[in-house]
């Protein structure tokens, strides 16, 4: 049994987790100011920004993948710029996967964070301004510490969603061993090659890990809530 | 001296309304702001705090907070603000809530002692009672030694005995720091006890500006004492009619004459008084 598990090729899983980890980190940094802005603004641009942010939820991954592919390819101004200046290609490699994943998982980071910010009593934010603190200080010292469940949800859901992506990854990255062949793509290939045993094992592992991650989030969040009421 | 002259369009309960007020406050004065809900009291406080925009002028001593060319941000005004629902930073202990405003530990200790919170200073806000929370909020508002302290119905969420206790503490803090204060309140007893002056707003305009005694204590007619009330019910008991009248939090029964019975209807505002006071001995 142990030998069997030891003989498995875990590279696609490691790649999936590396991709998800990097995407989550980048998205957290990008989404924090965006979600904060969306939660605080009364500007008329808010619905437009919210709609754009939510697009990846409704678009087929192939559509998203297609546009990302077109705009990053060597024929595009952006792709050509990176190719000429830095000598790197933005498609069919790990970098392209990270860029694509950031678009694909954006709403899963922004929406829970925005919801978290909006759930904080407005007067608490104002009390911080009255105390002479800037928006940035208020964001880090008052807002974020008072919405830990939302932060955790955003991070975990983004991570899990990125691990689970398939269509966009396939479109933008293809299936290059150790470079773009993540777990979901590997399963797809196994099924195509009728390696059902491998597909079963990989799939079961994915189900198990996803379940554990989600269970951890819900357990943490419900304990937070109960703790709040009990006092 | 604080000079306030502001105008602002508001969406009130009765549609569009203009907040248009012009008054001065002396340094160290305790001013109560009263009036029906929707009359613009809270908006006025928020404008003074810099939390809402308006047109006009606000001048505090020699410092201009707002005029045609200047608009000091909320962070730059150095005010104290006490919200009705406390608005404490739940992630910080009582002491940290105070030190967040200003690192002056000596002042924090002094304030906590004045409000008998010293023993609770390591506790988180969600373990405190409403009265304790509001005391923390009051201390926090005093932490930047504000030129102006604004309180928006600070005690209305508390029960009567806790209210009285906190009124005493507000009074003690005002004595100690002599902070110019504006407090929104509906409670005549509270206003009488704390304030030196009352401004009453109606539909965004000042309709009265006087001492609490003038504004609140009403002597009309020749009654020894009289109370404002509302007729809740009129019932027949055997051969007489009795009106049930709500005066403040209390209901009283008043026997009606035949003439009074005809004039009164449920919901009518009335004055209940007596001209001949019969002392009861026993």
Describe the structure.
- The complex is a heterodimer of chains A (231) and B (282).
- Chain A is mainly alpha-helical and 231 residues long.
- Helices cover 79% and strands 0% of the residues of chain A.
- Chain A has a single domain (2-222), classed as MetI-like fold (Orthogonal Bundle).
- In chain A, helix 2 (11-40) packs parallel to helix 6 (94-119), helix 6 (94-119) runs antiparallel to helix 9 and helix 9 runs antiparallel to helix 12 (196-230).
- Chain B is α/β, with parallel strands linked by helices and 282 residues long.
- In chain B, helix 3 (94-101) runs parallel beside helix 5 (130-142).
- At the A-B interface, helix 7 of A face helix 2 of B.
What is the compact description of this entry?
With 231 residues, chain A is mainly α.
Strand residue content of chain B: 25-35%
Report the CATH topology name of the largest domain in chain B. Rossmann fold
How much helicity do the residues of chain B have?
25-40%
Number of beta-strand segments of chain B: 14
Strand content of chain A: under 5%
Q: So what's the overall shape of chain B?
A: globular
Biggest sheet of chain B: strands side by side, in what order? 6-7-8-3-9-10
Number of domains of chain A: 1
**Unreliable runs of chain A, pLDDT <50, ≥5 residues?**
226-231
Any guess at the CATH architecture of chain A? Orthogonal Bundle
What does the secondary structure layout of this molecule look like, with pairings?
The complex is a heterodimer of chains A (231) and B (282).
Chain A: H1 2-7, H2 11-40, H3 46-58, H4 61-72, H5 77-85, H6 94-119, H7 122-130, H8 135-143, H9 148-163, H10 167-173, H11 183-192, H12 196-230
Chain B: E1 2-12, E2 15-25, E3 30-34, H1 41-49, E4 55-60, E5 63-66, H2 74-77, E6 80-82, H3 94-101, H4 105-114, H5 130-142, E7 148-152, H6 160-177, E8 180-184, H7 188-194, E9 197-202, E10 205-210, H8 212-216, E11 225-237, E12 240-247, E13 250-256, H9 258-263, E14 269-274
Parallel strand pairs in B: 3-8, 3-9, 6-7, 7-8
Antiparallel strand pairs in B: 1-2, 1-4, 4-5, 9-10, 11-12, 11-14, 12-13
Helix pairs in contact in B: 3-5, 5-6
